[in-house]
């Protein structure tokens, strides 16, 4: 079976580098990500095929890095799908993690550009599960106390080869936030309790105090079609560059021109940022609803919320300098993510 063969190959691959696993994360929460699924890409031309479609450099996977964060863009340089790509030990085989609601659309997108390439594309949606284990013990508003400070690595210089294998469960560091979250792949029939036992999570909570969506919003990380509506966002606006998801040194790929031009001019005035409501909202908000400052001016767009924690595409300078922020009368504040790198001179010019 394809799934069993892929898992066996991943087992061999993870064992080959498991000695390098030195993760200092101590995650307390473990969640099955029902909103994420996997697509298998296999064939002698699979690497070159993906290289021309994604923002990151697929060659990182041949250099020992087990997974990469990357985007698929349209011809106008806007984000279609945010993904994590895993390398299988099986020759010329990759697993693409994507929003489950976008699985069919991504398959169509891949097949549209496949042409006569020797590539097989198949869904593993009903055969494998994606899990996240994540740390919640950090101060998102205090840079001095945050363990994220100084953890950013530019794309192309990643040294994260850390991963681990326990029977039929594969554990990877999340390539976007490797020190606070793990990605786990398993067969469909593996339960949460089995994974927790294999990970030796003695203090794993029966009821999580924070779910994965709230965890992401607390950090200002968008994921999937609910946060990143296909064809609307630009890569740098969703912090793809800050999360090791784009290479500015590889060859051409679909949507590259605008992304490269924006990077080299250094002008990124809007980015996804965490929002925190003063009180638990009593209303529901529309996607892209305006976030208003004390002058009644729109300084951002609402993307979603989980309780008091929310996500917004914000005008950085205006939002951070605002004395008051609200949406439909509900008061909130914006937080500059503690994991953002120090502003470059160009970024300071564009923000100030």
Explain how this protein is built.
- With 352 residues, this protein is α+β, with helices and mostly antiparallel strands.
- The chain folds into two domains: 27-137 and 161-265, Probable tRNA modification gtpase trme, domain 1 (Gyrase A, domain 2); 269-340, Elongation Factor Tu (Ef-tu), domain 3 (Beta Barrel), CATH 2.40.30.
- The chain is 22% helix and 28% strand.
- It has helices spanning 2-17, 46-51, 103-114, 192-198, 212-219, 224-227, 256-265, 316-321, 345-351, and strands at 29-32, 36-42, 67-73, 79-87, 93-99, 120-123, 128-134, 163-166, 169-173, 181-187, 270-277, 290-293, 298-306, 309-315, 325-327, 330-334.
- The strands form three sheets. A six-stranded antiparallel β-barrel has the order 11-14-13-12-15-16.
- The model is unreliable at 13-27, 142-160 and 344-352 (pLDDT under 50).
Task: Give the CATH class of the largest domain.
Answer: Alpha Beta
Helical fraction equals: 10-25%
- Proportion of residues in β-strands: 25-35%
What is the total number of structural domains? 2
Estimated radius of gyration? 20 Å
β-strand number? 16
Largest sheet: 6 strands, antiparallel, barrel
Give unreliable regions as ranges.
13-27, 142-160, 344-352
Gross CATH architecture of the largest domain: 2-Layer Sandwich
CATH superfamily of the largest domain: Probable tRNA modification gtpase trme, domain 1
- Look up the CATH topology of the largest domain: Gyrase A, domain 2
Mean pLDDT: 83
* Order of helix and strand elements from N to C terminus: HEEHEEEHEEEEEHHHHEEEEHEEH
Q: Between the first and last Cα atoms, what is the distance in angstroms? A: 57 Å
Sheet with most strands: strand arrangement: 11-14-13-12-15-16
> Judging from the principal axes of the Cα atoms, what is the shape?
globular
Backbone structural class? alpha+beta
Quickly count the helices: 9
GO cellular component, one term: mitochondrial matrix
InterPro entries: CAF17_C, GCVT_N, TrmE/GcvT-like, YgfZ/GCV_T_CS, YgfZ/GcvT
Subcellular location: Mitochondrion
Main location: mitochondrion
């Amino acid at each position: 079976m394809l799934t069993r063969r892929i898992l066996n190959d991943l087992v061999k691959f993870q064992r080959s580098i498991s000695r390098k696993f030195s993760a200092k994360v101590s995650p307390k929460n473990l969640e099955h990500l029902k909103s994420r699924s996997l697509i298998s890409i296999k064939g002698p031309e699979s690497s070159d095929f993906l290289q021309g479609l994604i923002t990151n450099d697929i060659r990182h996977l041949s250099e020992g890095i087990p997974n990469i964060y990357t985007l698929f863009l349209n011809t106008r340089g806007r984000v279609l799908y945010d993904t994590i790509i895993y390398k299988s030990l099986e020759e010329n085989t990759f697993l693409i993690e994507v929003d489950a609601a976008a699985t069919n659309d991504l398959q169509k997108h891949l097949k549209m550009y496949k042409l006569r390439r020797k590539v097989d594309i198949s869904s593993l949606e009903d055969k494998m599960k994606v899990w996240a284990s994540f740390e919640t013990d950090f101060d998102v508003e205090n840079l001095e106390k945050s363990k994220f400070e100084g953890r950013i690595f530019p794309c192309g210089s990643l040294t994260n080869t850390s991963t681990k294998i326990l029977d039929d469960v594969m554990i990877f560091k999340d390539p976007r936030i490797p020190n606070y979250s793990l990605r786990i792949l398993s067969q469909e029939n593996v339960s949460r309790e089995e994974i927790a036992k294999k990970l030796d999570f003695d203090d794993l909570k029966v009821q999580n105090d924070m779910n994965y969506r709230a965890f992401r919003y607390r950090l200002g990380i968008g994921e999937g079609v609910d946060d990143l509506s296909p064809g609307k966002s630009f890569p740098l606006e969703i912090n793809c560059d800050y999360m090791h998801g784009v290479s500015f040194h590889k060859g051409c790929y679909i949507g590259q021109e605008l992304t490269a031009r924006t990077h080299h001019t250094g002008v990124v005035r809007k980015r996804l940022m965490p929002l925190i409501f003063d009180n638990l909202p009593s209303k529901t908000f529309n996607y892209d609803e305006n976030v208003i400052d004390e002058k009644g001016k729109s300084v951002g767009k609402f993307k979603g919320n989980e309780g008091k924690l929310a996500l917004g595409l914000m005008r950085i300078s205006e939002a951070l300098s605002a004395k008051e922020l609200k949406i439909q009368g509900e008061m909130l504040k914006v937080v500059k993510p503690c994991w953002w790198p120090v502003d470059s001179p160009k970024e300071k010019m564009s923000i100030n």
